[in-house]
Design a protein that fits this description.
There is one protein chain. With about 170 residues, the protein is α+β, with helices and mostly antiparallel strands. The protein has a 3-stranded antiparallel β-sheet, with helices on both faces.
């Protein structure tokens, strides 16, 4: 048993509870485990410390999932093409830096805004039709015209995918 664990056991026997949400543990064979643990005193009927309780949970799967999520977030945020996520009721959830830059804005400027705000006036009437198409087909590609903060317009080729749950309910579009 490593010395730091002996110290944790001593402190628990003295009445102290210790815990750690994530600790790397290397097995003798080199395998790495990530665990969450808590060590606490166990008291007898008289209230005296009679031993310790050790709780341990393998959090390796969670750590790997968090790593994957971070990688995809970095891809989204640093992609050189504009990307966005929108709600079923046509409000933006999130846009990446490239999307914001092409519109002359910051990413946070778009959170919660209506999707129609990115379209130039001549393209706005198409939004209901485009939303219906992506809902029905699951994926569409179309051309439109977007507007920058300064009012200038620019052509856009957009690819949209509808993400649905197992019952077919629309969760979001990207």
């Amino acid at each position: 048993i490593p010395e730091h664990w002996r110290e944790i056991h001593r402190r628990a026997l003295a009445g102290e509870t210790s815990r750690k949400d994530a600790e790397r543990f290397v097995r003798a064979d080199g395998t790495v485990l990530w665990t969450r643990w808590e060590v606490r005193p166990w008291h007898d009927d008289a209230g005296a410390v009679a031993g310790i309780l050790v709780f341990r949970e393998d959090i390796g799967d969670r750590r790997r999932s968090e790593g994957e999520l971070l990688r995809w977030e970095q891809v989204f945020q640093n992609a050189s093409w504009g990307m966005s996520l929108a709600t079923p009721d046509n409000r933006l959830i999130l846009v990446n830096r490239a999307f914001a830059e092409m519109h002359g804005t910051e990413p946070e400027d778009w959170t919660g805004r209506p999707l129609v705000d990115m379209f130039a006036e001549e393209s706005k009437p198409r939004l209901p039709e485009l939303a219906a198409q992506v809902h029905a087909a699951g994926h569409i590609v179309y051309e439109s015209v977007h507007v920058r903060r300064d009012g200038t317009t620019f052509p856009v080729l957009t690819e949209v995918t509808a993400f649905k749950d197992e019952t077919g309910h629309l969760l979001y579009r990207a």
